[in-house]
Write a structure and sequence with these properties.
By secondary structure, this protein is an alpha/beta fold. It contains six helices and five strands; from the N terminus they run βαβαβαβαβαα. The chain has a five-stranded parallel beta sheet, sandwiched between helices. The chain is globular and about 45 Å long.
Length: 160
C-alpha cells in the first residue's frame, strides 16, 4: 500500500448504495481514497456539486481514510494534482467493461504512471444506476433500498 491516494471518480448524481459499497471496498484496499465528483460543463445534473459532495461526505463518515473532492477537466490531470497513481472504477456488467477499458487505455496513454483498478460491483447492486434512481424518484417511487437515507431525503426535496 502507498500513502498516495487512489481516486474513485464519478458524477454521483445521486450517490447510490453501489457507490457507497465501492467506497468501503476501496477504503479497505488503499491507505487513502479520494472520491472525486466530476464537474462537466455540458451536463446538467440534478444535484449541484456542493450537494453531491455533502451527500458523499455523509456516506464517508465511517471511513477515516476517504476524502471527498471535486474536479473539472480530465481525470488524469486531477490525478497528477493529487499525486495519485491509481484510478478505481466499478464494473456492473460487460458493457461497463468495454467502455471503462477504452477510457483506462486512453488514460494509460496520456499518463502511463496511473493504473486503473476495476472492482466488480456487488451482485445486489449490479442493476443500480444513478439515472435509474432519479427516474424512480421522479415518479415518487421508493428509492430507500438503493440510496443512503440522506439521499432519500435530498431526492424528496428535489421531486417533492
Amino acid at each position: 500500500m502507498s500513502s498516495r491516494p487512489a481516486i474513485y471518480a464519478g458524477s454521483f448524481d445521486p450517490v447510490t448504495l453501489g457507490h457507497v459499497d465501492l467506497m468501503h471496498r476501496a477504503a479497505r484496499l488503499f491507505d487513502r481514497v479520494i472520491v472525486a465528483v466530476g464537474v462537466h460543463p455540458t451536463r446538467t445534473p440534478l444535484f449541484n456539486v456542493d450537494e453531491r459532495i455533502a451527500m458523499l461526505r455523509e456516506a464517508a463518515v465511517p471511513l477515516p481514510n476517504v476524502e471527498i473532492a471535486s474536479f473539472g477537466g480530465l481525470l488524469i490531470d486531477f490525478c497528477k494534482r493529487a499525486d495519485a497513481h491509481v484510478v478505481i472504477r466499478g464494473l456492473r456488467h460487460s458493457m461497463d467493461f468495454e467502455y471503462e477499458l477504452q477510457i483506462a487505455q486512453a488514460n494509460a496513454d496520456m499518463a502511463p504512471d496511473v493504473e486503473t483498478v476495476f472492482l466488480p460491483t456487488a451482485s445486489k447492486y449490479g442493476f443500480l444506476t444513478a439515472s435509474l434512481v432519479r427516474e424512480i424518484a421522479s415518479h415518487n417511487g421508493d428509492v430507500s433500498r438503493y440510496v443512503p437515507p440522506n439521499v432519500v431525503a435530498a431526492l424528496a426535496g428535489k421531486f417533492g
